[in-house]
Amino acid sequence: MLLAACSGSDGGGARPAPSTPAVASTVPGGPTTTATYTPRRVVTSVELDQTAAKLKHRAAALGLGDPKVEVGGDGTLTVTAVGGTKEKFTALAAQGQLGFRPVVALAPSGVTLPTGPGAAEAVTQGAVPAALAGQFNALDCADAAQRGALTADPGAEVLACSPQKPSLWEKLVLAPVVVDGQNLTSAKAVNDEQNGAGWQIQLTFDPTGTAAFADITGKLAPQPTPTNEFAIVLDGRVLSHPAVRSSIPGGTAVISGSFTKDEAQQLAAQMSDRLAVGLTLAGTTAPS
Question: Low complexity composition bias: which ranges (predicted)?
Answer without folding.
Answer: 26-36
